[in-house]
Design goal:
It is a single chain. The protein is of the alpha+beta class. 44% of the residues lie in helices and 22% in strands. It is elongated, with a radius of gyration of 28 Å. Strand 9 and strand 10 form a beta hairpin. The structure holds adenosine-5'-diphosphate (ADP). The site of adenosine-5'-diphosphate has 21 residues, from helix 9 and helix 10.
């Protein structure tokens, strides 16, 4: 026995209807029970309708009753998940769907379900539960808006900073042209001004690029093998400078994603894999993609210097570097960039690594746009 109270509660639920009623009303914003064999028949709890502003006594217990008020794209995703869940009980029936409230507003529902099967394993009924997450989704929307404002602010500032830097650079170049009239100390100072200004310019450009990533752009069908080939061509200089090998080792799958975002994330991880290579060891980068239930999982593995576990979180922070520039070139923004992109697609980024052997960076991007 797991716990005597659990057993007691199980019995109460079976024997006392008010307990089940309490659980249903207290924790769910709608319950539905659908007859897969007679698909027109479906029972819906009162809350199912009150959440959308309808009087439950006037609504029929028919599956067609809610089809007009659910968002059509979300319905297609739910039906796809239903099909997969019926075929494989391990595939979760779990998604966020939008309904239109009687007053015209959008209601966000997390809709989960489980198929009830007969002795042969055939799904005959579907039991589903609704949770209204509109408040959370709306708060999230407001947060995104605020973030956008901050990004714009960031963009304007970094954009405006370019001008004075360019003036410093061009004035110092003029001074460099009259080098023969300057003493050694003066020449040295001008050299420092030029180098620092160039570095500042590089940093400002990377902040600008970073602030340009705001919301996921349009998704298209992308063949991963083709995308990796295209990235290899674009990175041709770096690849040949380091005599690196970049392989796509997975099956060629086609996914729906935002090409620019995916390209930036992969480019950053591949170039890091090449840059942070070991002396006397030519870089070999292996890329793979795996399709999960709700996301695509990418991995980029290298045979480079590796990263100590204590820095696994730190390296994703903007401008965080573990090495000086004279050893490895870079601005410390690449991984922050990747993290931002991945999180925009409701994914995660993480790594495994062994110092002196190599690192593998993983990231996921969500398939369901509503989670973005
Ligand atoms: P950058 O490469 O411009 O310094 P990143 O944000 O891409 O900036 O990386 C942050 C730091 O993480 C790097 O400076 C480096 O110390 C470490 N790092 C990133 N990728 C790797 C890798 N594949 N192998 C070893 N170290 C890495």
């Amino acid at each position: 026995m797991e716990n005597y109270l659990k057993e007691e509660l199980d019995n109460l639920i079976k024997t006392d209807d008010s307990i089940f009623e309490f659980l249903q009303q207290g924790s769910l914003d709608g319950l539905w029970y659908w007859d897969i064999e007679e698909p027109e028949n479906e029972w819906m709890s009162k809350e199912f309708w009150t959440e959308f502003g309808y009087d439950p006594s006037k609504m029929p217990h028919k599956s067609s009753a809610w089809q007009d008020i659910i968002n059509k794209e979300d319905l297609a995703i739910a039906l796809e998940n239903f099909k997969k869940h019926v075929e494989d009980p391990n595939h979760p029936y779990d998604q966020i769907v939008r309904y239109t409230h009687k007053n015209g507003s959008t209601v966000y529902i997390r809709c989960r379900g489980i198929a009830v099967r007969d002795k042969t394993g055939k799904a005959v009924r579907m039991l589903g539960a609704h949770n209204n997450i509109t408040v959370v989704m709306n708060a999230n929307e407001r947060l995104k808006e605020k973030n956008k404002e901050l990004e714009q602010y960031n963009y304007i500032i970094s954009h405006d900073l370019q001008e004075p830097i360019n003036s410093i650079l061009s004035s110092s170049m003029i001074l460099q042209n009259i080098q023969d009239q300057l003493n050694e100390d003066e020449k040295y100072s001008i050299d420092i001004i030029i180098r620092s200004s160039n570095r500042m310019k590089e940093l400002i450009r990377s902040i600008l690029d970073y602030s340009k990533i705001t919301s996921p752009k349009e998704k298209t069908e992308i063949s991963i093998e083709d995308l990796v080939e295209q990235i290899k061509t674009e990175m041709g200089d770096l690849i040949s400078r380091y005599q690196a090998t970049v392989n796509y080792i997975g099956e060629n799958i086609t996914i729906r994603a935002t090409e620019t975002d995916l390209t930036i994330a992969l480019q950053n991880l591949i170039s890091n894999g090449i840059k942070y290579s070991r002396i006397n060891e030519k870089p070999i980068i292996n890329i793979e993609v795996e399709e999960l239930d709700t996301a695509y999982q990418f991995s980029v593995a290298d045979n480079g210097i590796g990263i100590d576990e204590e820095f696994f979180e730190e390296i994703f922070k903007i401008f965080k570097r573990l090495h000086t520039r004279d050893k490895y070139e870079g601005t410390g923004i690449g991984l922050a960039h990747c993290k931002k992109i991945v999180e925009l697609h409701n994914g995660k980024i993480w790594l495994t690594s062994e110092v002196g052997k190599g690192s593998t960076f993983y990231f996921t991007i969500s398939k369901n746009t509503l989670y973005e």
